[in-house]
Specification:
Helix content is about 40%, strand content about 15%. It has six helices and five strands, in the order βαβαβαβαβαα. The chain has a five-stranded parallel sheet, sandwiched between helices.
């Protein structure tokens, strides 16, 4: 896993923070679209213990690494976990853009408030939102986990490698 440090700002660096528990096809859509805007994309799995993740931080990093492997030939993508404020993380890696995905109005309300607070912390870092493709509007990691736990099929929501890890974790492998 590569790491960026402060001062590495020669290229446009974007950060895509999230829990990624697990990474879904909706997350992957945001990754692919982000690559059109930035030279380097740092995917930051956050510690975020408050959400009670199904997978440990190390497992989430490994899952994201597997999921993005096919995209590595198109752009520089780095998976770097972090804890604390996203703005501090973004600043520490020289990011000028935070990338976020929006699926519904409630996402917008939360993200709008978060963006306003982030602008108070650092006006040099912009937030860019991607509206979800209609195929991904309903996909949420929490729902994918619930479907897997209750015996449903998750193939349309995650990659095969993520599906295998998820089914193993919920005892369906």
């Amino acid at each position: 896993m590569g790491k960026l440090g402060a001062g590495m700002t020669s290229d446009r660096v974007g950060v895509y923070p999230g829990t990624f528990d697990p990474i879904t096809s909706g997350h992957m859509e945001v990754v692919r679209r982000s690559l059109r805007l930035v030279d380097k994309l740092v995917i930051g799995p956050a510690t975020n213990i408050g959400k009670g993740p199904l997978f440990s931080l190390d497992e989430r990093v490994a899952i994201v690494e597997e999921a993005i492997a096919p995209l590595r030939s198109r752009a520089e993508i780095i998976v770097q976990p972090y804890e604390g404020l996203t703005m501090h993380f973004a600043r520490s890696i020289g990011a000028s853009v935070i990338v976020r995905g929006l699926r519904r109005i409630s996402d917008f309300e939360f993200e709008f408030q978060m963006t306003a607070m982030n602008q108070q912390l650092d006006r040099e870092i912009e937030t860019v939102f991607f509206m979800a493709d209609p195929r991904h509007l309903a996909i949420a990691s929490v729902l994918v986990k619930e479907i897997a736990m209750l015996g449903g099929e998750v193939d349309n929501f995650v990659s095969p490698s993520v599906r295998d890890r998820l089914l193993a974790r919920v005892g369906r492998a």
